[in-house]
Structures are given as structure tokens and as C-alpha cells.
Specification:
The protein is an alpha+beta fold. It is built from 12 helices and 4 strands. It has a 4-stranded mixed beta sheet with strand order 3-2-1-4, sandwiched between helices.
């Protein structure tokens, strides 16, 4: 029975893992119905050829038996075996080919050519009497037993109804030639097979639904299992948070190392600070080397002052630079004039950009 705590649908990873183990959704009844239908439909189409092949073989046997003194027993025996093989291939070959193709096709549709070594590995649970006893009285075993009884019951009922309706016709075969009687009998049997097939198609549809429901029930997961899987695939959230924090600090450290190379830091007294560099010989436009807010902004200003980098207070420009430009990127064209005014102001104060 399924664990009552497993109430969640299986995740894609869980489904992949179960598939690797060979645990997949599969309906044997679907394969059986496909084989049954394909075999009898092909048989109906190939009956004339099959009868002709059997007739040729029997005629050949009669010809050999009519010889008064066979001169080549080995040759005749080989010829007889060849005739038998050809008759078998003509009569049964198409039916066998159709059933194999149908069986393989439906199996492939369900399994997608799954090959799993897990099912071949020896496991003690498979030979453990206690486990075997549990499987014997499990819900799945009970359902399979009921399905088997239902199939037998339906088959017996259909056959009984068929015989009840046609038994009077069988007596008329005594006054009919063999070929006509055989042809009519085969038509009647084909109708019987169609009735059985229709019943089994309904059963196969029910079996497919049941197998799907049972498979989904078996692979359900508990909330704890989903959390553990998430930790395995995505990582522990706490560890990921620590890693992100370390990465953020390292990025800030690299950014702060660029502040001494700036030509000016534009700030909004305490909330924002942006460090700019402009080298006319290599920069197409001023570059943002560092930017920060609140405590980080204060650190940028302190570092700039320690390295004698000019610090200019310009509230709207500091906010605009912080909001529009990423680190190590050129400022947008709409801010060229405002930044140029700051640089010109610095030149007038003889605070020229560093070379």
C-alpha cells in the first residue's frame, strides 16, 4: 500500500529516476488486444492464400504417396519438408509478422525502448517469502486476479452466446461442400473474434486507466521528499544564500579597488555615490567604476577621500547615474552634458583627471 504521507505528485526528476529503475507505466492488456486484432484482421485477408498453400501441400503429399516405388527417398523427403515450410510461411507468415509488429509497436509506444539493468540485478526481496506473501495479497494482486476472472467470464459468455446462435447451422455443413463450409465457418468465427475483441478493447481501456492511476499512486512523494530532492538538485537554500553573500562581498571588494582610479565621485550626500573615470585618449564616454547606496556609498566616499579623488555633491545626477548605469559601463548619452559640466568644473579647480 502507498504511504499515506505521500500526497504530492511525482516531480520530473522522480519520474526519470523511476524510469531508470525500470518502473514505468505499462499495460499488458493493450499489447494483447493489439496482437489479437492485428492477427485476426491479417488472417481474414490472407485466408484464400493460406488455404491454397495448404491445399498445394496436401496435393504434393498425395502425389508422393501415390508413387509405387520411390526411387529417391531422401530427395522426396527433402522436397516434402520444403513444401511444408513454404506452406507454413504462406499460411502463417503474414499473421506472425503482423502480430510481432503490433506487439513491438504498442510496447515501444509505452516504453520508448527502455532498457534497464536494475530489473536484472539480484534482490533478496524477490525471493523473500514474507515479501512474496505481501505481494500475493496486495491491492495490485487482487485487482489482477479480478481482471483475470472477468476476462474468463466474458470469454465464456460470448462463446456460449455464439454457440447458442449458430449450432443449428453446423448441421447444415454436412450437406455443403468442404470449401464453402470452411469459408462460412471462418466468417462466423471471425464475427466471434470481433465480439471478443470489442469486449477486450473495453477491458484494455479500463486497464490502461487503472495502470496509469496505480503508477501515479506508487510514485507519489511526500513533502519532505520534495524538499530533500530540491536540496540535492538546487542546493541547500542556506548554503546558496551564503555563497551569494560571499560572491556579493567579493564583487564589492573588486569594485572598491577601482575607486582610487576614478576621476570624480558624484554623491547625493548620504544615500548614493557613483565613481566615474574619463580618459579622453581611450574612453568614448565616462565609465562608472563603482556605485553604492547608503553604507556602501559612504565607503566609496571615504575611499575616494583617502586617495584624494574629487568628491562632488550633485543630488539629481548621483541618482540618475546610480539608476541608469551598471558598473564598468559607459554613462548614457542623456547624461553627457551633466557629467561634462562636472568635469569642466574640476578642470577649473585644477583637479585634472589622472593619467
Amino acid at each position: 500500500m502507498a504511504d499515506s504521507s505521500k500526497t504530492e505528485k511525482a516531480t520530473p526528476k522522480k519520474r526519470r529516476d523511476e524510469r531508470k529503475k525500470g518502473n514505468i507505466f505499462f499495460s499488458n492488456d493493450a499489447v494483447s488486444v493489439a496482437v489479437l486484432l492485428s492477427g485476426f484482421f491479417v488472417l481474414k485477408l490472407t485466408v484464400p492464400g493460406a488455404i491454397e498453400a495448404i491445399y498445394d501441400f496436401l496435393r504434393h503429399c498425395m502425389e508422393l504417396s501415390s508413387q509405387e516405388s520411390p526411387t529417391d527417398f531422401v530427395g522426396d523427403l527433402g522436397d516434402l519438408f520444403t513444401s511444408l515450410l513454404l506452406a507454413f510461411l504462406k499460411a502463417a507468415g503474414p499473421v506472425l509478422a503482423a502480430t510481432v509488429v503490433a506487439g513491438v509497436g504498442v510496447t515501444f509506444f509505452q516504453t520508448k525502448l527502455l532498457v534497464s539493468g536494475e530489473l536484472l540485478k539480484p534482490k533478496f526481496s524477490r525471493i523473500n517469502p514474507l515479501q512474496g506473501f505481501k505481494r500475493l495479497f496486495s491491492l495490485r494482486s487482487v485487482i489482477e486476479a479480478l481482471k483475470g476472472l472477468l476476462k474468463i467470464g466474458i470469454l465464456l459468455y460470448i462463446v456460449f452466446q455464439f454457440l447458442s446462435s449458430v449450432y443449428l447451422i453446423f448441421t447444415k455443413y454436412l450437406y455443403t461442400d468442404l470449401v464453402s463450409a470452411a469459408s462460412h465457418m471462418f466468417d462466423q468465427l471471425f464475427q466471434l473474434v470481433i465480439q471478443i475483441a470489442v469486449a477486450y478493447i473495453v477491458l484494455a481501456g479500463a486497464d490502461i486507466f487503472y495502470q496509469w492511476w496505480d503508477y501515479e499512486r506508487q510514485i507519489k512523494m511526500s513533502k519532505q521528499e520534495i524538499k530533500e530532492e530540491y536540496k540535492q538538485t538546487e542546493g541547500d537554500p542556506q548554503i546558496k544564500g551564503k555563497i551569494k553573500e560571499m560572491q556579493r562581498k567579493m564583487a564589492q571588494s573588486r569594485m572598491m579597488q577601482q575607486v582610487p582610479n576614478a576621476d570624480v565621485v558624484i554623491r547625493n550626500p548620504t544615500h548614493f555615490a557613483v565613481a566615474l573615470r574619463y580618459r579622453a585618449e581611450k574612453d568614448n564616454a565616462p565609465i562608472v567604476l563603482a556605485k553604492g547606496q547608503d553604507e556602501l556609498a559612504a565607503r566609496i566616499v571615504r575611499t575616494a577621500q583617502e586617495h584624494k579623488v574629487a568628491v562632488i555633491e550633485n543630488v539629481p545626477l548621483a541618482r540618475a547615474l546610480y539608476a541608469t548605469t551598471e558598473i564598468n559601463r559607459e554613462i548614457p548619452p542623456e547624461l553627457y552634458n551633466a557629467v561634462a559640466e562636472v568635469l569642466v568644473y574640476l578642470y577649473r579647480l585644477d583637479s585634472k583627471p589622472k593619467k
